[in-house]
Structures are given as C-alpha cells and as structure tokens.
Amino acid sequence: MVVGEEHVLTDADLRAGFETDWTGQYRGRARLVVRPASTAEVVGVVRACQGAGVPVVPQGGNTGLAGGSVPDGTGTAIVLSTTRLDALDPVDTAARQVTVGAGVTLAAAQAHAGPAGLRVAVDLAARGSATVGGMAATNAGGMHVLRHGTMRRQVAGLEAVLADGSVLAHLGGLDKDNTGYDLSGLLCGSEGTLAVLTRVRLRLIPVPAHLVTALLAWPDLGTMVEGLNDLRTRVDGLEAAEYIVRRGVDLVTSTFGVTPPFAAGHPAYLIVEVAGGTDPTDALADAIAALPDVLDVAVATGSGQRQALWQLRELHTEALARHGPPRKYDVTVPLATLAAFVAEAVALVEDDRGLTCHHFGHLGDGNVHLNVLGVDAWSPERLARLDDAVFTLVASHGGSISAEHGIGRLKRRWLHLSRSPVEIAAMMAVKRALDPLGLLSPGVLLPAPDQVPMWSAGTDPILPD
Ligand code: FAD
Ligand code: MLT
Ligand code: ZN
C-alpha cells in the first residue's frame, strides 16, 4: 500500500471530521481519507486514483470557508489530507525564504522562522490549523494584505503533483526569473482543482522591532473610511486596518466574556497596527489626534494589551459560528462605495426576512465579511435566492464576489459576476489541459458546463470595436 494501512481511514467515525467543513454547512462523503507523508506518496495516491478514475479532494487544515475542502455527497471521491506533509527546511536567511511542507500550519511556519528574526507576512485567526498549502491554494488574505499583499505574493515557488502524477517543482526562489509562465502564481488560488501542492517556498519578512496597535471609535462607517484614507497619508508602516461594529463587538463580548477598552459602546471601530524599526507610538498618536471624527481611542503597545484589542476582531468568526451557522459573504467593493454598499446589503438581507446581518472586515482592502444569522432552517433554493441577491448587489457596486476565501462550492454558480466569459473559458482550458479527466476537486471553483454563460452574437470580447 502506498501510504501504510494506518494512514488510510475508511471507518465512518474516523472520516467524519474530514467530510464536514469548518462552517458545518458542507457535509460530504468520502470513499476514504488518505494521509501521505511525502511527495512520493502523494504521487502514488494520485496515480492510483487516476488509474481507477477516482476524484481527489486535497485538504489541509479544513478551515476554508467556501466549502472547497470537503467532497460532495456521492462517496466517490477520496480526501487527500496533507497534514503529514509537515517537513520544515532550514530557514534561508540570505534569501529570507524557507521551504516547508504543504501541511505545515501557519503557526508552525511562524514559529520556525521566528528565531531567525523573520516571519510570514500573511496572518489570520485560523493560524493554528490553516496550512501553508491551503493558504496558497486559496490565495489567503488576512490582516496584513494592506501592506504585504495576499499569499500569492509570499510564494516564491512551489512543488505540486499534477493530476497524472507528474511532479512540477520550481523551488529555486530566485526573485528575478523571467522564464515563461508563472505556474506557481497560477496554482495559488486554484483551490485544489489543478494540482496537489506538496511543498511551498515562502518569502519571509523581518519581525518588526516595534508594533503598536490602536482601537479607534467612529460615529459611522463612512467617516471611518475617510479617516482611514487620511491616516494612510499621515502614518508610515501601517500593517493592518480592520473594522468591526457595535453589534459584532457585543456578540464577541457576550459570547466570550472579553472586555472592550471603552466604558460605552460606539457605532463603529477601526483597529490599526503600525510596525517600525523605531517606536511608532508617538507618530501614530499624533496622526490619530489630527483626525476630526474619532470618538475615542485606546492604544496598546505591550503584546498582552495588543492581543486584547485583536481578540475583539479575531473572535468574530468563532462567535458567529456559535450562534450560526451563518451564511458567509466574503466580498470586496471599491472603498469609495463601501459604506453605501454595506447599508444596502444589510437592508436587503434583513428586510422582512427576520435575519440578522453582521459585518466586519479588512477595511484597508475594501473587504467586507457579511455574516447572516437566522438561515439555519432555510432550504438550499431559498439560500440560493439570497446569495443571488447579495452577489448581484456586489457586482452592481463594481465589487468581487470573493475577496479572499475563494469560490469553493459556495460561489461557483456566480463566478460570471466577477469573471468575463473569456476569462472563464481560459480557466476551463487550463483545467482541461492539466486535469483532462476532471478528477481534482470536481464541483469546486469552476461552474458546471451548463452554467457557463455563452457569448451572444456581436459581443465577442476578443474583437476590438
Ligand atoms: P482547507 O480548508 O483544507 O482547503 C481550502 C481549499 O484549498 C480547498 O479547496 C482545498 O481543496 C484546497 N487545498 C488545501 N490544501 C491543498 C493543497 N496542499 N493542495 C491543493 N489544494 C489544497 N481566510 C483568509 O483569507 N483570511 C482570513 O482572515 C481568514 N480568517 C479565518 C479565520 C477563521 C477563524 C477561520 C476558521 C478561517 C479563516 N480564513 C481566512 C479561511 C481559511 O483559514 C483560509 O482559507 C485558509 O487558507 C485555508 O487553509 P486550510 O489549510 O485550512 O485549507
Ligand atoms: C476574517 O477576516 O476574520 C475571516 O476571513 C473569517 C471570516 O470571514 O469569518
Ligand atoms: Zn477575512
């Protein structure tokens, strides 16, 4: 056997955790779960599946929020769990890079880089479980995109097993390397549909000497957006600009018993974090003092205080899950329209439906997380109508239906709202070329063939006017 009997899980109880996604909304069935420990074992598994025509769903930490990490309900696919691909190569301090197994968690990668004074630039609340491979496969975003970009920018190279079992490897980590298509970039964000990622060459950045975090209270979202714009011109080294509102803070504090720093609640809050080689506290305080609409401020410099502020933001997902499951809409809109979009979205969702719409997000990136509570008993058809209304609103504001969680199973029907027919056709051509039998993560990301919008005569987008 390719991986050893103890690493093939056939028992229903042992499979269960791999068949349900983090949100509990996607419950599939796997023929079995296989847990390879090396690239050679992944090759063996993928070749065997290709020979038998068996679909393969790669899974890392299973923290994905778009339903892509679990199989469908047919019981035909296997789950290929990457958590045993956990090798850590020595940190290359000259290049400021490290190669790690795809199953290494973000927290483990950070702990490995830390002693060299380095860190991974992407950070997110699921750091203890989310794997580097899963983060590359979803092109994860998180708290620091504003300054350092998404996961794709942190990936200097990849090793991956293609659907036919061949190993595509580009791990040299050269910063300048103009030798054709950027295949690592293509595999970032491919959500398990093009290859199983086995190793990732990560770029690292220096751990900052000083970090200061502040919580700013505002009368509303609109003034906060303007204030952030102002702050960005006044402060260097802004690493994070995250927003939360009173309803979410109340939910987090009542669910987890954490205490907010202000005696009275405020309508909206911005958490900003600044990094610097010298202490940026005074510069940040001066910049905040110059903002006209701030109602209150709490500044944290020590790690305990900073963590207490971050908890108010990071515990939103867990708090909502305890009161849910929520319907999650991870979207981006242009900053200029963000406040108007949120007001319209909340009204659209809550209007006459008895639903509660929470919202928070990565303000600096225009990334809003709408989380709708009260849909537990809704039928799939009714949910799809709500999804359609929300995504259509996003598109009408010039936004994207997926900011950072990917398309997964959740949004594949609406891909055409964010991608043109030509783009979708090109993606499908890539898929056919790399996975002609369609065995990698079927039903994820790409729309079903009967859902692909056709070009109408006279609108061929290739031809210039
Ligand atoms: P999984 O959930 O296991 O898989 C996700 C997708 O990637 C699936 O389609 C799967 O097939 C594919 N995949 C996984 N591993 C591989 C591999 N080795 N090769 C090929 N395909 C693979 N996301 C953000 O972007 N920003 C956030 O701020 C953020 N915060 C979160 C906070 C919480 C509390 C939670 C629960 C989730 C959060 N997420 C966030 C979502 C999630 O953590 C990310 O999408 C993460 O990148 C998923 O990693 P994973 O290892 O859990 O992947
Ligand atoms: C976050 O920013 O906290 C995450 O993307 C998770 C979520 O949307 O709940
Ligand atoms: Zn997020």
Concise overview:
With 465 residues, the protein is an alpha+beta fold. It has helices at 12-19, 39-52, 106-113, 132-138, 145-148, 151-154, 183-187, 221-234, 246-256, 281-289, 303-314, 316-322, 338-350, 380-396, 421-434; strands at 8-9, 33-34, 56-59, 78-81, 97-101, 118-119, 155-162, 167-170, 195-203, 205-206, 210-218, 238-245, 268-276, 296-300, 327-332, 356-362, 367-373.
Description:
The chain contains 15 helices and 17 strands. It is an alpha+beta fold. The strands form five sheets. It has a four-stranded mixed β-sheet with strand order 1-2-4-3. The protein has a four-stranded antiparallel β-sheet with strand order 5-9-7-8. Helix 9 packs across helix 12 and helix 13 packs antiparallel against helix 14 (380-396). It is globular. The relative contact order is 0.12. Mean pLDDT is 94; it is low at 454-465. Bound molecules: flavin-adenine dinucleotide, D-malate and zinc ion. Flavin-adenine dinucleotide (FAD) binds next to strand 3, helix 4 and strand 9.
Give a topology summary.
Blueprint: E1 8-9, H1 12-19, E2 33-34, H2 39-52, E3 56-59, E4 78-81, E5 97-101, H3 106-113, E6 118-119, H4 132-138, H5 145-148, H6 151-154, E7 155-162, E8 167-170, H7 183-187, E9 195-203, E10 205-206, E11 210-218, H8 221-234, E12 238-245, H9 246-256, E13 268-276, H10 281-289, E14 296-300, H11 303-314, H12 316-322, E15 327-332, H13 338-350, E16 356-362, E17 367-373, H14 380-396, H15 421-434
Helix pairs in contact: 9-12, 13-14
The protein binds flavin-adenine dinucleotide, D-malate (MLT) and zinc ion.
